[in-house]
Amino acid sequence: MTLGTFGFLFTGILLNAAAQLLLKAGVRNLGELSLSLDTLVSTTIAVGTQLPIIGGLFCYGISVFVWIIGLSRVDVTIAYPMLSLGYVINAALAWYLFGEVMSMQRIIGITVILIGVWILARS
User: Is 52 exposed, middle or buried (0-12, 13-18, 19+ CB in 10 A)?
Assistant: First the structure.
């Protein structure tokens, strides 16, 4: 895999991770959401007007475009597992930004993911 191809894939991964964090920030502003027939319209409006959620959806859109370029250059069996880097990025940033728990079990899992991605990237 060339550095340029990795760059496209990693940019897609970063944008996808940013989207997740923005979506989380947006729903944190709203609290726990309830979906029932009585609240469907009001919940949809509340979610759809949160700037972080709008930004997250925009990041998703751009990430798909960048990801497609990356997929045109590398096998999907290499590219798709690299998406797990998004979990690593999100776990670290969710811990830092939102105070989410980073247990030893999660750290070990993240280490396994990083080793797996490294092995795949070298093939």
Answer: middle
User: pLDDT per residue over 39-51, tens digit each?
Assistant: 888 888 999 999 9
Whether the Cβ atoms of residue 19 and residue 86 lie closer than 8 Å to each other: no
Whole-model pTM? Answer: 0.83
The answer to whether the beta carbons of residues 38 and 44 sit under 8 Å apart is no
Total of domains in the chain:
1
Ranges of H-type helices in the chain: 3-30, 40-48, 51-71, 76-82, 85-98, 104-122
Handedness of CA 66, 122, 81, 109 (dihedral sign): negative
Domain residues for the domain of 116 are 3-122
